[in-house]
Design a protein that fits this description.
This protein is α/β, with parallel strands linked by helices. The chain has a domain at 80-103 and 210-381: Rossmann fold (3-Layer(aba) Sandwich), CATH 3.40.50. It has helices spanning 45-48, 86-90, 109-123, 135-147, 162-170, 182-194, 207-213, 215-224, 239-253, 273-280, 306-315, 325-339, 345-353, 395-404, and strands at residues 7-11, 17-18, 34-38, 80-82, 94-99, 127-131, 150-156, 174-178, 199-201, 230-234, 262-268, 319-323, 366-371. It has a 6-stranded mixed sheet with strand order 4-5-13-10-11-12, sandwiched between helices. Strands 8-7-6-9 form a 4-stranded parallel sheet, sandwiched between helices.
């Protein structure tokens, strides 16, 4: 099927372009991933930032889906919250949290899913498939239900948080457990799609996902009124950091913004192939065979969008940082207890990294941490016991507890 007017699929490796969409999201010449690019006339500022509530589809003039009714649950328009207390301990006066956990299914995945599912409907797809560590499965299941399509999700057995899996179950997706990690589930997903049967892949290899996710950059720019100095975000399969970079780069290339932020990717120390490549100066990543971290959303050892992520980090003059599970857990607690923002473990990784970034960021820099998923998705990772909570059987016991606290 032909792409929307003015849009092309471009290979990120050899640079070849094509005007038609095929069953594969990789380049037929060199096998690299492709991205959607707009050639010719570009959107004007007033086209993108017109009056009205912020949402993904507000930026429709900059999206490659035309002439279709959006499959939407009201995604986007998430809060950009200025730090109340952590700015003091981190030494960053202008510290903000972009709270993507406020999306309909509780994660940033909804931004890409609304665009990709809308395109899938336009293409006549009937069955949508993905591999997932949890959030993608929840989002795909919800948007498939909204569109009246079937969803199949492959998840690593025993390694998906209950709060995420129960969403996919509730929305009626067919869930298949895979023996192994996410990377194995993703391999099987691609193999299943390659066998025919009308399966349309919805992982971030799908460039329409990236187009929806890039709108987080537009929102940050609109909410701040300018481009931040740094954007810090967790990196797993690496689609999101490349999507945000694409959004900021478009704003600059289209003459709307005069600069771009440094993109800082954060990985868990037990699942850090991209951070290692950045640190060593390598031009490709070495997969981590057995990725391990408490942050299940970034427990990925072979990220499919690794080249896009390396490009984003290096082109922006950014960097990559690794954090330990202990640092992630502590940052998650601090974000909840000091800022009132409850996130899943992976979302706390950018906050955990701020200490290591002190020498890089100045006191006057504007820094945005993108926190990607809601904490209710990972309740089992919070260590607490209701039986240890104070019990008041009468007024005297309540009064004593109040005095002690």
């Amino acid at each position: 099927m032909r792409l929307a007017e003015g849009w092309r699929l471009r290979c990120i490796g050899c640079g070849s372009t094509r005007r038609r969409e095929t069953d594969s999201f990789t380049c037929p010449r060199c096998g690299e991933l492709t991205e959607l690019v707009l050639e010719g006339s570009r959107p004007e500022r007033e086209d993108i930032f017109r009056a009205g509530d912020i949402s993904v589809w507000k930026y429709g003039s900059a999206l490659p889906v035309k002439g279709a009714k959006p499959v939407t649950l009201g995604e986007g328009g998430t809060p950009l919250v200025k730090s109340a207390r952590l700015s003091e301990s981190t030494g960053i006066d202008e510290l903000y949290f972009k709270n993507e956990g406020q999306n309909p299914t509780g994660s940033f995945k909804d931004r890409g899913m609304t665009v990709a599912v809308t395109r899938a409907v336009q293409l006549g797809a009937r069955v949508l498939i993905c591999a997932s560590t949890g959030n993608t499965s929840a989002s795909l299941a919800a948007y498939s239900a909204r569109a009246g399509l079937s969803a199949v999700v492959l998840v690593p057995s025993g390694k998906v948080a209950t709060g995420k899996l129960v969403q996919a179950v509730s929305h009626g997706a067919t869930i298949v457990r895979v023996s192994g990690n996410f990377d194995r589930a993703f391999e099987l997903t691609l193999r299943a799609a390659g066998k025919g049967g009308g399966l349309y892949v919805m992982n971030s290899i799908n460039p329409y996902r990236i187009e929806g996710q890039k709108t987080v950059a537009y929102e940050i720019y609109e909410q701040l009124g300018s481009v931040p100095d740094y954007v810090v975000m967790p990196v797993g399969n690496a689609g999101n950091i490349s999507a945000a970079w694409k959004g900021f780069k478009e704003l600059r290339d289209w003459g709307i913004a005069d600069r771009v932020p440094g993109m800082i990717g954060v990985q868990a120390s037990g699942a850090s192939p991209i951070a290692r490549a950045v640190e060593s100066g390598a031009d490709r990543v070495v997969p981590v065979r057995r990725p391990s971290t408490v942050a299940s959303a970034i427990r990925i050892g072979k990220p499919v969008s690794w080249r896009k992520a390396l490009n984003a980090i290096r082109e922006s003059g950014g960097g990559a940082v690794t954090v330990t599970d202990e640092q992630i857990t502590r940052a998650r607690s601090e974000l909840a207890s000091k800022e009132g923002i409850f996130v899943e473990s992976a979302s706390a990784a950018p906050v955990a990294a701020l200490g290591a970034l002190k020498g890089r960021m100045g006191k006057g820099d504007v820094v945005v941490c993108i926190v990607t998923g809601h904490g209710l998705k990972e309740q089992e990772t919070i260590q607490w016991n209701t039986e240890r909570l104070p019990l008041a059987r009468n007024w005297e016991e309540l009064a004593r507890t109040l005095r002690e606290h």
